[in-house]
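Run log, item B.
One chain of 291 residues. Sequence copied directly from the ordering sheet:
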Amino acid sequence: MLTPPSPITPPQAGAQPARRRADLTVLGQIETQARTRLTLTVPSSAIDPDTPPVPLPMLDFRLQVMRAAGHARDRAWRHLAEAARADRGDWNLYALGVAYPKLRAQANKLTAYLAPGPAAQAHFTFAIEFLFALHRLDLTTPQVFSRLVDAAYTHASGRKRQRPPLMYDLDSLPDDRVPRSEHSNPEQDAHVHDASQETEYAVLERLFTQTNTNPGRQTISDTQAALIRRTYLDGETLRTVAAELNLSEPSASKQRKRAATTIARLLGRHHLTEPTPHRPTTGDRSVPRQR
């Protein structure tokens, strides 16, 4: 004999959905403060001036900016940076909240092998350096947000810090190996020149400036320089960088390859450049006939 099915108990009224796990890092706590404490809003026209202005709290503004095209994202970050420079205070916190997803992802690189104490300090330093960049960076050039994050990561990671120049220990060298100077100053010649300590980032910056200031040279665009720096030097994936630069992955690959070839030529590494394709002429007998 079949028994009637048991009645389905309706869900309790007022049941709350599962909450996301709280980010207890320094950047996570900053984002929580921005999300729960701030009452500031940014008009939606800061992203798209053709739409009616609607006040956007921090979370809504962040979502809109993340979905915006490159030029609209630049417009939004210029508006936010100008507000932070004018009034500081809560606008700094608002900017950190908007930048949180990218800052948190980049901070993972800084803290992957750090103990909790140094990791917390790295998060704090990263946030401070982002605010320094927000208040000092040139806002007139494209890719504002990418350059803000890149500047913050550069200083927080210390990748621009140069090692102290190497020096000979003159006291431990035999007399026949002590460097002699024409000016009776062996210490001056014993120092390794600072130029020999040039980092790969400095080389890229020098070549970028050289190609864009000297007439007649093939230029390296801001986008190409960012592709080289972030994929070859910082280790980011081409897909991630291409998405942030609003490029398709094949287009980003071609631009990176073109810039790498230009850099190889400037450095005299001709064996690293792409060979010029041979275009056979009509009378070239070496070309096999089509069957």
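Observations after the first pass:
- Residues 1-11, 192-196, 275-280, 283-291 have pLDDT under 50 and may be disordered.
- Residues 26-157 form one domain.
Flagged for discussion on Thursday.
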